[in-house]
Amino acid sequence: MTEQPTSPGEAAPRIHVAIVEDDLGFRSALERALRAAPDMRLAGTAGTRAEGIALLQGPPVDVLLVDLGLPDGSGIEVIRAAARQWPSCSIMVSTNFGDETHVMRSIEAGAAGYLLKDSSQARIVDEIRSLASGGSPISPIIARQVLAHFRQNAAPAGAEPAGDEPQLLSAREKEVLDFITKGFTAVEIAKLMGLSHFTVRTFVRRIYSKLKVTSKAEAIYEARNQGLLAQ
Amino acid sequence: MSPRRQAGRLLSRIAAALLAATAALAALSAWSEGEAHTHAPSLHITEVEWQVLNAPGFSAAPPTQDSASLPTAWQPVDLPHAPPVSLLRQAAAAAPGTTRTAWFRLSTQGLAAAHGPLVLYGARVRTDGTVAVYADGQLVHTAQQQGPLWNSSRTPLWVPLDQTTDGKPPREILLRLEHTRASQVALSSLWLGPADALSWRHSWRHWLQLELPAMFSAAFLAVGIFAFFVWFRRRHRTAYLLFFVLAATSFLRGLHFYIGFPIANDWFAWLTVNSLFWLVLTVHFSLLLLHRRRQPWLAGTLIAATVLMGLLTLPVVATLPNTPKVTPLIYVMAALMGLVVALAGGINAWRGRSGEAMLVSAGVAMCTAFGVGDWLLQNNFISPEGWYLGAWTNAITFSIFGTLLYRRYVGAIVEVERVNAGLAERLLAREAELELSHQRLRAVERRQMLSDERQRMMQDMHDGLGSTLISAIRSVEHGGMSDAKVSQILKDCMDDLKLAIDSMEPVEADLLLLLATLRFRLEPRLEDTGVALLWEVRELPTLPWLDPSSALHILRILQESVANILRHTRATEIRVGTAVEGDGVQVTITDNGQGFDVESALAQASGKGLHNQQRRAQMLGGRVAWESGPAGTRFTLWLPLESPHRTP
After folding, report:
1. Which of A99, A120, A140 sits opposite B516 (nearest CB)?
2. CA dihedral B592, B593, B599, B605 (to 10 degrees)
3. Among positive and negative, which fits the CA dihedral B304, B305, B307, B313?
4. Nearest CB to B501; choose among A97, A144, A184
5. Tens digits of per-residue pLDDT, B78-112?
């Protein structure tokens, strides 16, 4: 199931959103925000990890919001399962502070973005829309962490698993990250690099997916090193 | 008592080995001289005829000697033959004068016809004059033409006899032994037979009496020299010096046993006699070192006797003429000294419970016994067939002191190994100790760090979040605040909290990253207000001192500035810029608001925010400044590149 990114206002296929969240306050805030957005629809809700996993058995949605601190386990598992079962779905982690440890772990598990829970309704809708259309948000500290991650893996140690070669950042991707660490916004970066600001956000999405791949490759490599996986 | 028991065990082992060696030697000698040997048809001659003639002095043996031309006063005599010597008379008649010639006549009757050359073999021929052998009247062998050599009495007789022209063995053999009037000759039993049947007797005699002891003597000296060099580097180890002196005196003493060329030097004779005394004395000092019981009287007496003997026998003084005729009496003295040393050593070893001293004492006793045996043999008190064992004293001395040296050596190795093991153990213990104190230090550091961090967070909460929340609660309770205002205050609190969390993220000394984070957090608020933010930052050098604590200070200073602009001015535009300024970096925040009177604001109580900014900047070793006019305000924060004094 594929849905083309749509612009607001157009009477076209809606953006289906599902949420795995035990915080009822945020859930209702999201419901309000989605109700106000004509192009979006809440397709499912889950309050626990188990419900979240069960939700994945149903038809895929376009954007899945996941909270990490679920009562019966970590949302990371839901993200991982969703990335596997709903490959076309954009996963978003909802977080209070957007702190590096939460966000990086989620991205490595397969998330494409994050949503600050104290965001205004308008911003929530904007973020979901941007994510559904292939863009990703990023903060300066996350950008620095991503850069550091790829710098560490620039010279991969030992034999990497064939076919899963670690993808390196392109020069332009690096440039984007660099601007972000210096405090420039997507719009400013787009201007500086002569791109559209939407392109900048899709750059970020691509960087995230590379991060996910290298993290997976590293995990496999580590597992082989420790004899957990057969050669 | 383990070392003493060990010493005892060692002693018994060595004693057993010595006993076995002596027994083997005795057995060998008995076997070699015995009749049981049936190797070949050799004639063992034990009955001869002899006579002694007076002569005016030593003369060269004539090339031929017909026995018929000699007087007919032949008397039968049994071999071995050793007429008794009167030692005192011999010593008294030291003056040279007339001599005597002893003739021995041997009949070869009974000798089976044999092929190959015949030889005459005798274990010992002793005289202080010349030796000559005639076969059927023809001179076939001479020895000691210039008087006896030092090793003569130890060198067995070996005379090859040429076949006569008719191919038959000689019928009669004559021995001519010249000697001084007061001294006596000695002759062991003789063997006549084919060379290959008798050579083993001669070889064994020669090897056991001359060559083997000489080898021991040389080996002893070599080890002694080694000990000397050890002592040279370790002067306080007198035992090594003593060992060297022992080896040296033993060697000197032993020299006369082996020297087979004439040395007509009085000093050599002096050395030979006196080295025996020195040897005994050195052994005594070694014993003192072993049993550690002082015997000043005995030591003094022994030294005095040795010195006296040395002086009396000095060739230049010649109070006692050091001649073969007098020395037997001197050797009695040496034997007595050896006996005293052995006894005293034995008693003190027993009292001092020193197995090693006991071993040495036993060795001294044994060597003394050997010496006495030699003396008896030399002076015709016992059969000349016997063995000179005196030469073996070197071997005994070497074996015993070599054993002691070996024990010291092995002991030193064991000690070094033990010390090394102890050292390794101590090192391990120290390492463990170090690790423990390191762990303690780390724990203290961790506690300190936690405490610092807690203090920092408490301070921050107290100044910011805490007081804002308290005033919000109060306002809500009194109902004097709109919902929008409460929401605004809570959003401010949320921003405070986010910045506090951001300050703990690793920024890697990058001030720009910190500014970027601030912008990222404040952007939504700015968007709401509609104020434009112009980002005009430049690359900055890193600030190595930038840790979470100072990061939070910087964030708070700048947050306050932006908040002030939003709160108190009607600015539509904020510019944020960075620059390198002197030996520091500068962050400027410029607005286009209406400005304010900096001095009066600082003077007022409401200027608390500004004072907080100043205080925080000072803590970082930096400073803040405001330039305000009607066209706007320019706030600058200057921070040093390196922080010379940092107060947390």
Report:
1. A140
2. -140
3. positive
4. A97
5. 888 888 776 666 666 555 567 888 888 888 777 76
Q: 3-class secondary structure for B370-414?
A: HHHHHHHHHCCCCCCCCCCCCCHHHHHHHHHHHHHHHHHHHHHHH
pTM of the model: 0.55
ipTM of the complex, rounded to two decimals: 0.85
B contact test, residue of A95, A144, A184 with most B CBs within 10 A: A144
Domains of chain B: 43-204 (2.60.120), 504-640 (3.30.565.10)
The tens digit of pLDDT for each residue in B35-78 reads 444 455 777 888 888 888 888 777 888 888 887 888 888 888 88
> Please, what are the domains in chain A?
15-132 (3.40.50.2300), 140-225 (1.10.10)
DSSP state of B607: G
Q: How remote is the C-alpha of A170 from its chain's centroid?
A: 20
Residues from A contacting B (CB-CB < 8 Å) are 97-100, 118-120, 123, 139-141, 144, 180-185, 188
Rounded Cα gap, residues B591 and B569, in angstroms: 9
Q: Which of A141, A183, A188 sits opposite B505 (nearest CB)?
A: A141
Q: What values do phi and psi take at B569, rounded to 5? A: -120, 170
Those residues with Cβ within 8 angstroms of residue B129's Cβ, 6 or more apart along the chain or in another chain = B58, B99, B101, B144, B147, B148, B177, B178, B179, B180
How many helical (H) and strand (E) elements, i.e. helices and strands, does chain B have? 16, 17
The packing angle between helices B212-233 and B238-258, to 10°, is 150
Question: Where do we find the tokens 């006996």?
Answer: B339
| Distance of alpha carbon B301 from alpha carbon B163, whole angstroms | 61
Quote the tokens at residue B325: 């005729």
Q: Do B523 and A97 touch (CB under 8 A)?
A: no
- Report the residue of B490, B513, B539 to disrupt the A interface, i.e. the one with the largest count of A CBs within 10 Å: B513
B538 and chain A: CB distance < 8 Å anywhere?
Answer: no
pLDDT of res. A5: 46
